[in-house]
Structure formats: structure tokens, C-alpha cells
Write a structure and sequence with these properties.
By secondary structure, this protein is of the alpha+beta class. The protein contains 15 helices and ten strands. Strands 1, 2, 7, 8, 9 and 10 form a six-stranded antiparallel β-sheet that branches. A two-stranded antiparallel sheet has the order 3-6. A two-stranded antiparallel ribbon has the order 4-5. The relative contact order is 0.21.
């Protein structure tokens, strides 16, 4: 595998836990007008959306594609259920951060949840600094930050330092227990994003990987020796798990108070992938995406829920593929365009019946 080289490469490498960098840098493969024409044609013909239709949209993409789209019945119809390789565990990157958000809010669950997470102050220092942290910008910022600010930075900017602050507060094992109780059997999270990076780089003591070691690894162009998708420290899930989770979490099934659900929805509505894909106009969307680019391995995951016309749609679209290059903008652009086309078509078909 190629080595890490310089800050620009570091930012690409650390796309492991942030959809924003990967998705924002690449233009869509097809212009909106062309996509609209396809969708309108489907509406005129009263097209039925099927797994075969979706499979064809992604047919030219390399690697493994996993899709699940579920719309419960509404307005007298039977809804929609599409699944393509949905039980496959794939690398999902920062998509795992929604579980951290849920557990943090569950811990503070009460009618005063906003006051609780605003007053809870978390240390911002070398114990939690991690790469790809656009908000907290280590090592240039230190001090204390409210839990609410950290949770917002974790979702809005996919800030890894913010993620490690939240994980340190609630405990990764407690997040894993929450995942297990929710019946999500194909989901794995790391001890922290920094531990994950340490494992990728083959650090002997990756579980205690320090900020100084992170900096040294960059300066020494330390090569990546372990695959992001592994059985030790990874960020993985399946479309089945993520749709099952979002279909319950967005309805408050994991919270005892409506105020906590409101805060969960509010923060997830900041998700970067909502605008970077982008999701269909006219929907209220709740998404935390994820991606990675390292030499030889690439992944993008777009999971969440959207609400329109008094109905819900839950979805997860993931791709993992192999390419020797550090980045693969052509495949990324094609995936973004196919995802946008699929979700636009879902909305159009459900609106026309």
C-alpha cells in the first residue's frame, strides 16, 4: 500500500469517518435536468419501483453495493420495500456516529435533555485529539466544550475529535451494548477514531495510540497495513441494521421523552450528506453518512430517513470497492449520482401511487 504523504493526503485518508470530504469534492455525474427527465417519465407511466430497477441504476459501479429502502404503507398504499445485498456487512465509516449520538442522548434522556448536554462540559485536549477534525482543529484548540457542541460537530462536520470526546463520555462498550440490545448483529464500532487509525497504521499499542504518535506517523509517512474492514477495529454495518435502527430511532423507540427525540432529530437534520448527495428537495431528512479513501480500498455509505407528504422512508445505500489509487473520483461521482437518482425516484413514485 502507498504511504501517507502530507496534510492533503492525511485529509483524504481520514475520510474514514467523514462523508463531507469525499462527497463535496466531486461533481455529480449527471446534470439535474437529465435526472428529472427520467423521473418524470416514470411518473407518466406510473412506474413501479422494484429492486431490479434500483439494481440497474447501480449496475455499472464496481465493488459491492448494498441497498435497503423501506417506506411503510400510507394513504391506502402498501408502501415500498427494496433490498439488494442488504444483509452484507460493509464498511460504513462515519455512519457509525449516529449510534454514539443516540447513546449520548439516551444517557441524558429527560425533559431537560438540552440543558443537561449544554451544561455538561467535556475536555478538549491531546487525550481526545484526532485527525480530520475540521471544527476542533487539533492541536490549535484546547479547553472545554459543551457536550451539545461536540455532538453537533460530530454530525454536522463529522469531526473525529468531537466523536472521540463523545465516545469517551458515554463509553464505547455502552454504545456496543445499545447496539446489541437493538438487535443489530452486523454492526461494529471502534474504541475511538484514533484507535481505529492506530490499528490501520499497524501501531503495536493501537489502543493507546497517542496524539504524538499520530503526528509522528504522518511525519514518517507510515504506511497503512490493515484494511479498514476488519474484525478488530472497524466501522461496519449492514443496510438491514441501519434501516432497522433508523426506523425505530427516528420514531423515538430508544428514548423515553419527546424532548430527547426532538434533539436527536434536530442534530441528525444537520448531517452533511443531506446536502452533498443531495437528497430530494421538499423532504425533511435525517442522515449521517460515512466514507473512506485509502490506497486500495474505498467506501461510501448514505443511511437515514426522510419524511414528506405525511409518510416516512428509511434507507441505506452503501458501496465498498477496490482501487489502487488513493482516490477514485469517477466512481464516487457515479455513486452519488445513482444515489440521488434512486432517492428522487423513490419520492416521485410514492407521491404518484
Amino acid at each position: 500500500m502507498n504511504q501517507l504523504a502530507g496534510s492533503a493526503t492525511r485529509r483524504r485518508f481520514m475520510t474514514a469517518t467523514g462523508a463531507a470530504v469525499a462527497l463535496s469534492a466531486v461533481p455529480l455525474a449527471a446534470p439535474p435536468i437529465a435526472q428529472a427527465a427520467v423521473i418524470n417519465l416514470g411518473v407518466r407511466r406510473r412506474q413501479k419501483l422494484s429492486a431490479a430497477t434500483v439494481r440497474n441504476i447501480f449496475a455499472d459501479l464496481p465493488g459491492e453495493i448494498s441497498v435497503k429502502i423501506v417506506a411503510p404503507g400510507a394513504h391506502g398504499d402498501h408502501g415500498l420495500h427494496i433490498a439488494i445485498n442488504s444483509d452484507r456487512q460493509l464498511f460504513v465509516g462515519s455512519a457509525f456516529k449516529t449510534f454514539v449520538l443516540a447513546e449520548a442522548l439516551r444517557t441524558a434522556d429527560s425533559p431537560d435533555v438540552v440543558s443537561t448536554i449544554t451544561s455538561e462540559m467535556l475536555p478538549l485536549n491531546e487525550s481526545v485529539w484526532s485527525l480530520d477534525s475540521a471544527t476542533f482543529n487539533p492541536p490549535n484548540l484546547s479547553g472545554t466544550v459543551s457536550e451539545r457542541t461536540a455532538l453537533e460537530a460530530m454530525i454536522l462536520h463529522s469531526d473525529n475529535t468531537a466523536t472521540d470526546m463523545a465516545l469517551k463520555l458515554v463509553g464505547p462498550d455502552n454504545v456496543r451494548k445499545f447496539i446489541a440490545r437493538a438487535g443489530l448483529t452486523k454492526t461494529s464500532i471502534p474504541d475511538s477514531t484514533r484507535v481505529f487509525f492506530g490499528y490501520l497504521l499497524g501501531a503495536k499499542d493501537y489502543k493507546t495510540f497517542t496524539w504524538d504518535e499520530v503526528v509522528a506517523a504522518e511525519e514518517n509517512n507510515t504506511p497503512i497495513v490493515n484494511s479498514p474492514l476488519n474484525n478488530v477495529e472497524t466501522l461496519a454495518s449492514s443496510a438491514d441494521d441501519l434501516v432497522s435502527y433508523y426506523s425505530r430511532a427516528l420514531q423515538g423507540r430508544f428514548f423515553s421523552h419527546s424532548e430527547t427525540l426532538d434533539e436527536f432529530r434536530r442534530i441528525l437534520a444537520m448531517g452533511d450528506a443531506i446536502w452533498l448527495v443531495p437528497l430530494p428537495l421538499g423532504v425533511t431528512a435525517f442522515v449521517k453518512g460515512g466514507s473512506i479513501d485509502v490506497p486500495g480500498f474505498h467506501a461510501v455509505c448514505v443511511p437515514g430517513g426522510m419524511f414528506f407528504d405525511d409518510r416516512w422512508v428509511y434507507f441505506c445505500i452503501t458501496i465498498n470497492w477496490y482501487s489502487n489509487a488513493l482516490t477514485d473520483p469517477a466512481t464516487l461521482s457515479a455513486f452519488v449520482a445513482a444515489t440521488r437518482k434512486t432517492l428522487d425516484l423513490v419520492k416521485a413514485v410514492l407521491q404518484t401511487g
